[in-house]
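Lab notebook, design round three. We kept the backbone fixed and only want residue identities now. Task for the bench partner: fill in a sequence for the structure below.
Input structure tokens:
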């Protein structure tokens, strides 16, 4: 029977795992994406979990989801809607079905669709499929809970522990459906649970049970699927999240610069994983301090920078508010510091687990006084490595704090990442004071071309100096309230940032004759690029440009923006980048596409909106 089942080759597929927060959907999705990346598929993931620490079991507000988009080549978004939906209970089906395509295959645990489960999920009838308009022929209805209990009956595990393995049964079915090698899953589990081998083996047993269930019953589907890998580039790959890539980028920058890395931080969703990851790498000379609050986390990093470390602090939007006074100390002292802002929904504590781009103006202007600071925005999970590396390079070469914007979607999402060769990364040369200044050093002596002050590390003989929050004389470094000196220092600090060289703004698509230029910044890059490609397939001339370096802006910004008759600025806020660009480029009047939903853009919505602009 199995030999007669058709195997179809697909270019891409989207799978969404969903269930209670305790059902292990994030782990199941992460394993499936890792296995797919290992065999060379392109991947893009989107973890979508609730803010509740532990919502009531089976409740609509407690559903956790993990969506992964897998392709034969590079993929740019987690996908608008899924081809396969795993719903571990009634609440998951009720809340997540809206993310499924009309023809999607749906895998459910029928043991979690009892009367009480349906009542919690606010179903009105016992025929939940008909109530939602779901064709039962598309549903793989499997008694997962019962089968997992039978599978682990002799394991010695209690019922609660056994039920935690249900996610592995569902993963096994999905692996069968897409012809994944279960050996790769087994290797992942043995590595993850290396200190608890029995747990690993129990989960492996359940994964194989799920795979065999699909193989032996065909799970009610007409075919299984294979996604080949194309355009493979030789190298070592891993599935990496944006937060982990950020941590690795900081480590690489410190290594390249020959400096010790210090992170002063305070836990906050969704940035905490940067702290967690760096704390694992003491052997690489990394020092991490979990401070008592946000301002102390940043202030400790300022102190470490003064002492000569490559210093960083990580947080999210509310934390940037609290850190602003300490950040401004680094601005006036002209000390290198990398501030990582993983943007989330606001204002206030807002939507802690959801993603926005609403901190842009705060990053640019959210400090007292004239306090210019470079701002960089990572464009994807893997770009977090390059973006934070660039931020660290700018910080220590130009002696300035640099703010890196990522967001919850980019930081928690993952993609296949080719491990770089550190020898091939750009050189980093901290702007240390030369030995010729010994005995004649003052802290604000500058390179005349770049306006960067020379960095004297404390303890270095002949370079004794004082820094602080009060304005200093540009020549002597002594405290000064002279109005002319303050005006001069404000202009010097602004001029230094303005002279930092950044790459030109790149235009993709029909860059010579586009009817419409799509503009965005940071983590919307994949969605906007995909929208551009969809419009080009429809016969429209469209181009796209994504800002990664926001302050200073690329030198060709005005040239690019004023070249096209129609420009739309698309961002996950109410128009912050558009306002900034209008202020910086005379005569620039763009169309705008703005959403603040806490969710990534939907490509089909972008295409529809942009097509309306083209047809005006």
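Proposed sequence:
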């Amino acid at each position: 029977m199995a030999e007669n089942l058709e195997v179809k080759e697909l270019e891409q597929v989207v799978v969404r795992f969903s269930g209670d927060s305790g059902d292990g959907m994030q782990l199941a999705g992460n394993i499936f994406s890792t296995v797919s990346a290992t065999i060379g598929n392109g991947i893009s993931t989107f973890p979508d979990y609730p803010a509740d620490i532990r919502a009531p079991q089976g409740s609509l507000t407690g559903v956790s989801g993990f969506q992964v988009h897998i392709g034969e080549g590079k993929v740019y978004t987690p996908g608008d809607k899924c081809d396969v939906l795993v719903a571990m209970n009634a609440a998951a089906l009720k809340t997540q079905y809206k993310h499924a395509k009309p023809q999607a295959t749906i895998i459910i645990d029928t043991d979690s669709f009892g009367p009480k489960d349906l009542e919690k999920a606010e179903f009105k009838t016992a025929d939940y499929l008909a109530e939602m308009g779901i064709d039962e022929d598309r549903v793989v209805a499997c008694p997962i809970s019962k089968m997992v209990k039978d599978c682990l009956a002799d394991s010695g595990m209690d019922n609660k522990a056994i039920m935690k393995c249900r996610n592995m049964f569902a993963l096994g079915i999905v692996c069968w459906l897409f012809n994944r090698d279960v050996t790769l899953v087994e290797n992942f589990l043995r590595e993850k649970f290396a200190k608890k081998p029995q747990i690993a083996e129990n989960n492996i047993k359940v994964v194989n049970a799920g795979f065999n269930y699909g193989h032996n019953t065909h799970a009610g589907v007409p075919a299984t699927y294979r996604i080949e890998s194309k355009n493979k580039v030789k190298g070592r790959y891993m599935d990496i999240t944006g937060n982990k890539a950020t941590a690795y980028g900081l480590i690489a920058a410190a290594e390249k610069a020959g400096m010790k890395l210090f992170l002063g931080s305070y836990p906050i969703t969704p940035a905490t994983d940067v702290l967690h990851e760096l704390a694992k790498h003491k052997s690489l000379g990394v020092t991490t301090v979990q401070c008592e609050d946000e301002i102390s986390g940043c202030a400790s990093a300022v102190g470490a920078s003064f002492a000569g470390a490559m210093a960083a602090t990580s947080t999210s939007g509310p934390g940037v508010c609290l850190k602003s006074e300490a950040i401004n100390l680094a601005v006036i002292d002209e000390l290198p510091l990398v501030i990582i802002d993983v943007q989330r929904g606001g204002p206030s504590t807002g939507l802690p687990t959801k993603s926005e781009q609403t901190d842009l103006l705060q990053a640019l202007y959210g400090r007292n006084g004239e306090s210019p600071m470079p701002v960089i925005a990572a464009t994807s999970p893997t770009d977090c490595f390059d973006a934070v590396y660039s931020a660290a390079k700018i910080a220590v070469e130009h002696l300035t704090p640099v703010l890196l914007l990522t967001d919850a979607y980019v930081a928690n999402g993952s993609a296949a990442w080719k491990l770089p060769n550190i020898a091939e990364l750009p050189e980093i040369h901290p702007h240390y004071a030369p030995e010729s200044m010994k005995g004649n050093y003052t802290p604000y002596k500058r390179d005349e071309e770049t306006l960067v002050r020379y960095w004297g590390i404390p303890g270095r003989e002949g370079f004794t100096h004082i820094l602080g929050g009060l304005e200093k004389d540009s020549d002597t470094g002594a405290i000064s309230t002279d109005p002319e000196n303050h005006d001069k220092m404000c202009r010097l600090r602004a001029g230094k940032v303005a002279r930092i060289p950044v790459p030109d703004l790149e235009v993709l698509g029909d860059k010579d004759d586009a009817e419409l230029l799509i503009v965005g910044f940071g983590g919307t890059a994949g969605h906007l690029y995909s929208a551009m490609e969809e419009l080009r397939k429809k016969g429209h001339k469209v181009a796209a440009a994504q800002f990664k370096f926001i302050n200073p802006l690329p030198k060709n910004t005005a040239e690019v923006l004023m070249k096209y008759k129609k420009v739309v600025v698309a961002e996950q806020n109410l128009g912050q980048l558009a306002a900034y660009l209008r202020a910086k480029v005379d005569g620039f009047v763009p169309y705008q596409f703005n959403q603040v939903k806490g969710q990534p853009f939907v490509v089909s919505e972008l295409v529809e909106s942009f097509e309306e602009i083209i047809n005006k």
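Keep this in mind before ordering anything: The two ends are 57 Å apart (CA to CA).
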